[in-house]
Amino acid sequence: MTTLPLVPLPAAVGAPGGPPFVLDADVRIGGDAVAAGVLRRLAATRTGLHLGHAEDGAAPDAARIALTVDGSGPAESYRLAVRHDGIEVRAADAAGLFYGIQTLGQLVAGSATGWTVPAADIDDAPRFAYRGVMLDVARHFHDVGTVTAFLERAASLKFNVLHLHLSDDQAWRLELRSRPELTARTAANAVGGDPGGFYTQDDYRRIIDHAAAHHMTVVPEFDMPGHTHAVGIAYPAVAAAPALEGWDAAGGPTPVAGEPYTGIGVGFSSLRIGDAATDAFVADVFTELATLTPGPYLHFGGDEAHGTAPADFAAFVERTSALIARLGKTPVAWHEAGAAGDLARGTVGQYWSFVRPAEGAAEKTRAFTAAGGRVILSPADAVYLDMKPDETATLGLTWANGPTSLERAYRWEPADVIDGLSEDDILGVEAPLWTETVRTLDDIDALTFPRIAAAAEAAWSPRSGAAPGRTWDSFRSRVGGLGPLWTTLDIRFPASPEVSWTL
């Protein structure tokens, strides 16, 4: 069992013994230039050392770190070998090399005598192809700098997807030239009357480019036919009046048609299904979104549409999933959309019920695989990062079976959530952060860390118990060893009492 501070746990870790590699100002980096730049920046942040190029005229016996894409192994895989006289990282592709560097960064240890890296042999590859985090920018707006800082944190833990929840009852956050009133009339709003905002198309491209530089794909979401009260403010003809029977007010204000909604209740809003104006609106927004988004996925929501009649909901899901497929993208929807009878072939379902599914949730989720699609697992009582970590937390909510401790966030197995799903049916794991109580990057850090590390291990590492160290006791030790790295990366993580931290 490895005691090295590695999260997520690599597929295979060997400790060959021998003296460590000494990291000092004489070390030079050779090989892939882009990866070398990543490692130099990480080393400078972690240690203050500014490592040079191997070609800079260093003495022949100068210590060397070699970074190479050799095309060997599965996608995103890497091999890391550390000896006293050198470090070598070889990878199947650029992403694998990036992840190998993140692992190397976790191994760097400081002491009174300097910086070292312990001897190690690591052969690593991800379990799932899709390893996502989600940031809700609709309930509270988060600017480009906050989004890019969040995705950098996620990428360091080998997440490769950033899902942006761009619209909800409170506001619409992405500029669309085909429907300019969406941001003009709603973007100033947020939960509690807090300041709003939106992304210009240039802002959105900056986020996408920054994500790509960290080997992350952006998955944008316009949520509909529910969660669309803001749409009705911008384009009243396409939105139904609030349906208040049976909606979840969450203790907040009652929504009024045409007026900004500042609460956190859900389930009251709906588009007008079947109207030509609604069909044109949906076609406009997803057609423009497809042109702005280079990644393969467009998420159309489909959750908590309690204000939409079941037959209308099914018709909407069928029509919208088909539209997105015609645009050359893979449709993604929350698991409720599995109630529709004719999902577009290949539509991906995102499951957000509990580790033990609520009634009907598993059946709806299996419908996506019956339609040739796959499933993203986001069980709310395990990986919803907006849940309070304990009863005393000032941020977060508790509706997902109460507070979610770090231990509970870790002790679940993706293959065991939905009966009847094979390993191949699972596209991956995503950890969402809804922002009803989240206003700043410090708030994001306070809720996501260290539980985001548990989600990273569920997404990347071998299944629970399938590898030495893939246990709660090992994880809490390993994540505790990341305290110095996270501190130097300026991550404002709370020192969870469930962990013995190295600080």
Automatic annotation (TrEMBL):
Annotated Beta-hexosaminidase bacterial type N-terminal domain residues: 5-125
InterPro entries attached to this UniProt entry: Beta_hexosaminidase_sua/sub (IPR025705), GH (IPR017853), Glyco_hydro_20_cat (IPR015883), Hex-like_dom2 (IPR029018), HEX_bac_N (IPR015882)
Keywords, alphabetical: Glycosidase, Hydrolase
Domain Glycoside hydrolase family 20 catalytic: 128-306, 314-462
Top-level class of the enzyme under EC nomenclature: hydrolase
Enzyme Commission number(s) of this protein: 3.2.1.52
Alphabetized Pfam families for the sequence: Glyco_hydro_20 (PF00728), Glyco_hydro_20b (PF02838)
Superkingdom in the source lineage: Bacteria
Presence of keyword Hydrolase: yes
Signal peptide annotation: none
Catalyzed reactions per annotation: Hydrolysis of terminal non-reducing N-acetyl-D-hexosamine residues in N-acetyl-beta-D-hexosaminides
Gene3D superfamilies attached to this UniProt entry: Chitobiase/beta-hexosaminidase domain 2-like (3.30.379.10), Glycosidases (3.20.20.80)
Protein family: Belongs to the glycosyl hydrolase 20 family.
Name used for this protein in its record: beta-N-acetylhexosaminidase
Taxonomic classification: Bacteria, Bacillati, Actinomycetota, Actinomycetes, Micrococcales
